[in-house]
Fold:
Amino acid sequence: MESAYNKFTSTLVYQSDAIISSIQADIDQIRQFDKEKEGKQRVWGASAIVAVVTGVALFLLGVMMEQPILVAGTVLGAVTGIACGIMWWLSKGYNVDDDRYQLLSGILRLISADTAKDAPVNVNMDLRRPDHKTKYTRKGTAGHWNVNFYEDSWLNLRGKLLDGASYNLVLIEKFQARSRWKTSRSGKSKRKTKTKTATGAILRIKPKAAKHGYLENLSADVATAVKLPNWVELKSVTMENGVLVLKIGTKNEWSATSPGQNQRGDGVEMVAMMFLSLYQVINLSKRMSKSL
Structure:
């Protein structure tokens, strides 16, 4: 049976239902895989540049010295440059976003203290590009821009905590690829492109019904118990069929490797505060129920 990691190396989608230590071991392999692809991308990129520069130099030298053989070397340089460029592009396709697998690793460290060592955790992590064709949703406009919209539900994490509560965390990136034509003062048309992203997260926690039945009378006031980083917006906190649901969103960039740099938020802190907030809601609802 093919391992979850081996499947990932060909699909860039990691799926596993295993204990946390096993998943962390796979993430270490993914990290090494990513570093190897980054290294190959740099090598092929440098090789393409060297081949092109060498080809141009041979062409100029051949013309100046009237040596056709040197001019012919340009063809070899061009072919080599194209081949290296293709290999660079292929390597780039396997150079995944570090922050995604680092965030999963950080979340697993976070919940490991409240998870039995032999308890399986179900993970589905998609490290393909956010503008992968399978994530395309529609085409539209925004102001003067033509926009291709993508929705990338890249992480789905499920498990059970020591107190018997089950959880489901979903992380979503909403990605926009924008383009438009702009005419300069000289009359030349130029195509401009840019991207926009926003992050959404949904955390569902289902406490044991016998222990937390008072949540059925959830009050709107419990939203005050939700504490999130100041760069994250609370969308809603509700009770759906015995499941507490917290939805948040942010247009800020976040990081799991270097939070705080370039005004990036801490992705692990964001998820940690989502878990803490729902447990604050549980405790607040319990106190409110007892006061009735």
Observations:
- The chain has a mean pLDDT of 83.
- The helical segments are 4-11, 20-65, 68-93, 98-112, 267-291.
- The first strand starts at residue 13 and ends at 18.
